[in-house]
Amino acid sequence: METINKSLDINQIKQYLPHRYPMLLVDRVLTWESGKTITAIKNVTANEEFFNGHFPNKPVMPGVLMVEAMAQTAAILSFLTMGQKPDENTIVYFAGIDAVRFKRPVGPGDQLKMEVEILRIARGIWKYKAIATVDGQLAVEAELMCTLRTTNDEAKSAVAASETPAGA
């Protein structure tokens, strides 16, 4: 029997993401199903820092931040799927972003609804299909690839690289 899990509030979200204001871009998880999908929202307000410069006379949420919001949603799904919360040594990195398409601007007062689906997990790389809508209209879509790393992994990689002879 498949179970669809409901709602995470902002305090629960902070247990799965290291991001904090102004870079925490997920306000609520509406639903999620382990290993499959998640739906979350970002309430876009007139008080967002980026609107001061993007653009003062016509505020538009930067596309890279919409993609980041979808990636943060994907990271939450990954941790929920693994049944674990990250520690201070765990980081989720982008491994790739493909087929990004921006379909409509997002501005103050909009609610960005992100829907992310896991397409596959292979060799430590998670691949997702992500879309974000406003009032049912597609705002952005992309395929995201991410990997989870710990600071211990990075230290091992740095040591291995320093031990590899030049030209090897």
How would you sum up this structure, described in words?
It is found in: Cytoplasm. Involved in unsaturated fatty acids biosynthesis. Catalyzes the dehydration of short chain beta-hydroxyacyl-ACPs and long chain saturated and unsaturated beta-hydroxyacyl-ACPs. It catalyses: a (3R)-hydroxyacyl-[ACP] = a (2E)-enoyl-[ACP] + H2O. This protein has 3 helices and 7 strands; from the N terminus they run E-H-E-E-H-E-E-E-E-H. With 168 residues, the chain is an alpha+beta fold. It has one domain: Hotdog Thioesterase (Thiol Ester Dehydrase, Chain A), CATH 3.10.129.10. The chain has a 7-stranded antiparallel sheet. Strand 2 and strand 3 form a beta hairpin. 23% of the residues are buried.
Briefly note the structural class of the backbone.
alpha+beta
Question: Biggest β-sheet: count, sense, barrel?
Answer: 7 strands, antiparallel
Number of helices: 3
What count of structural domains? 1
Secondary-structure element string: EHEEHEEEEH
Low-pLDDT stretches: 158-162, 164-168
What's the alpha carbon Rg, rounded to whole Å?
Answer: 17 Å
What would the principal axes of the Cα set say about the shape? globular
Q: Could you report the average pLDDT, rounded to the nearest whole number?
A: 90
Helix content range? 10-25%
CATH fold label: Thiol Ester Dehydrase, Chain A
The CATH homologous superfamily corresponds to Hotdog Thioesterase
| Order of the strands making up the biggest sheet | 1-2-3-5-6-7-4
Broad CATH class: Alpha Beta
Measured between the Cα atoms of the first and last residue, the distance is 51 Å
User: What oligomeric assembly is this protein in?
Assistant: single chain
What is the strand tally?
Answer: 7
Catalytic activity: a (3R)-hydroxyacyl-[ACP] = a (2E)-enoyl-[ACP] + H2O
Protein name: 3-hydroxyacyl-[acyl-carrier-protein] dehydratase FabZ
Active site: 54
Family: Belongs to the thioester dehydratase family. FabZ subfamily.
